[in-house]
Amino acid sequence: MRFIQRSAAILLLLLGGAHAGAHAEPYPQGPVTVVVPFTAGGGSDNVARLISDRLSARLGQPFVVDNKPGASTNLGNELVARARPDGRTLLLGQVTLSINPTLMPGLKYDVMRDYVGVAHIGDAPVVLVTSTDFPARDLPSLVRYVREHPGKTNFASGGVGTSVHLAGELFKARAGVDMLHIPYRGSTQMVTDLIGGQIHMIFNTAPSVVQFVKAGKLRAIAVSGARRLDELPDVPTFAEAGMPDFDAPSWYGLMAPAGTAPEVVERLNATVEDILREPAVRAALTRIGVEPVGGGVPAFAAFLRAQQKMWGDVIRTAHVKIDN
User: Fold this and answer.
1) What is residue 53's three-state secondary structure?
2) Are residues 119 and 130 in the same domain?
3) Do 193 and 106 reside in the same domain of the chain?
4) Which residues are CB-contacts of 11 (< 8 A; sequence separation ≥ 6)?
5) For the chain, how far is it from start to end, CA to CA, in angstroms?
6) How does DSSP assign 139-187, residue by residue?
7) According to the UniProt entry, where is the signal peptide (predicted)?
8) How many angstroms separate the CA atoms of 291 and 249, rounded?
9) What is the pLDDT of residue 249?
10) Is the pLDDT assigned to residue 64 strictly greater than 80?
11) Domain housing 83
């Protein structure tokens, strides 16, 4: 009997040690899915694949990109919001997370409640470009011209409620001007019409317009963000051009479901920070028009709150509505 009791006690100790050892295993153990709420090949997908490849190399487990487009990114967003908070499902979050809560009442997820911001990867600055025959050649003269022609100057975007549409609405509010918004279905025809002079100006991400600016087909007036773009070194920032309160970045960040263990979030954040210091990664992001940002988890949380408030205010002030 004593032998049996002693054997049982030893077995319990061994099982307890094995159990403790399992809990001590570092994250991640097994593949991690990074959901991208867009089709493959776009800016968000490119960012996700670049960062996922480096996470796989550094953490020794596969980080697999899973494209889940649909419902203005809400399909993929909701999928991650409802996922188990075990660090095995992440979201490549971007600016629609700051826009959709106000633009689309009744969402099945709450950004500030259902996610934890893991890492702020980078921002894609917006460039204000005009046709080459537009009378203004810099920001002060553009604002002056629009004020002198209220309601007769237009700007276009790839659709109502898109980040570049709202960038134009933010510009109107900051500059105190009245402009007509012309929505297109996508950006290709919009850029063609801008080159042809059928429309006056657009706010768009750098990769969409830089080649046309360099070719002399479009004129760049100003760029959002804290510094000039390497590819357009002669184009001032909005702050340099006299409008320091205008900034409309299309941001990218890694998100996890709320309730994810703090040690998992911190490990991912620290790893992404290291990745963003790699010269090759910084160069690759810059090539696709993304300025690396980084920073800790609290800083990213504060950024998310500020972005949701800013875009919410823009949407409400401009009375922007979309067809359901």
Assistant:
1) helix
2) no
3) no
4) none
5) 74
6) HHHHHHHHHHSTTT-EEEESSTTSHHHHHHHHHHHHHT---EEEE-SSS
7) 1-24
8) 10
9) 83
10) yes
11) 33-123+249-318
Distance in angstroms (rounded) separating the CA atoms of residues 285 and 287: 5
Q: What is the CA radius of gyration of the chain?
A: 24
Reported in sequence order, the residue ranges of the chain that DSSP labels E, i.e. its strands, are 32-36, 63-67, 89-94, 115-124, 126-131, 154-157, 180-183, 201-205, 218-223, 250-257, 291-292
Q: What is the pLDDT of residue 24?
A: 54
pTM for the model stands at 0.86
Note whether residue 237 is domain-resident: no
Name the nearest CA neighbour of 95 among 126, 123, 129, 65.
Answer: 123
Query: Do 147 and 214 fall within a single domain?
Result: yes
Antiparallel, parallel or unpaired: β 126-131 and 201-205: antiparallel
Three-point CA angle 198, 136, 170, nearest 5°: 80
Mean per-residue pLDDT, 177-181:
96
Which residue is it, tokens 């940002």? 293
The per-residue pLDDT for range 6-59, each reduced to its tens digit, is 444 444 444 444 444 444 578 999 999 999 999 998 889 999 999 999 999 999
Q: Clarify whether residues 255 and 282 are in a common domain.
A: yes
**Residue 118 has which token pair?**
């893991």
What would you measure as the largest C-alpha separation in the chain, in angstroms?
Answer: 100
Q: Same domain, yes or no, for 189 and 276? A: no
Nearest to 311 by CA among 129, 100, 137, 118: 100
Average pLDDT of the residues in 97-102: 96
pLDDT in tens, 208-261: 899 999 999 999 999 999 899 988 999 999 999 999 999 998 999 999 999 999
Consecutive H or E run containing 267: helix 262-276
What pLDDT is attached to residue 18? 42
Mean pLDDT, residues 97-126:
95
Residues 153-166: what's their mean pLDDT? Answer: 94
What confidence tens digit (pLDDT) does each residue in 181-205 have? 999 988 889 999 999 999 999 999 8
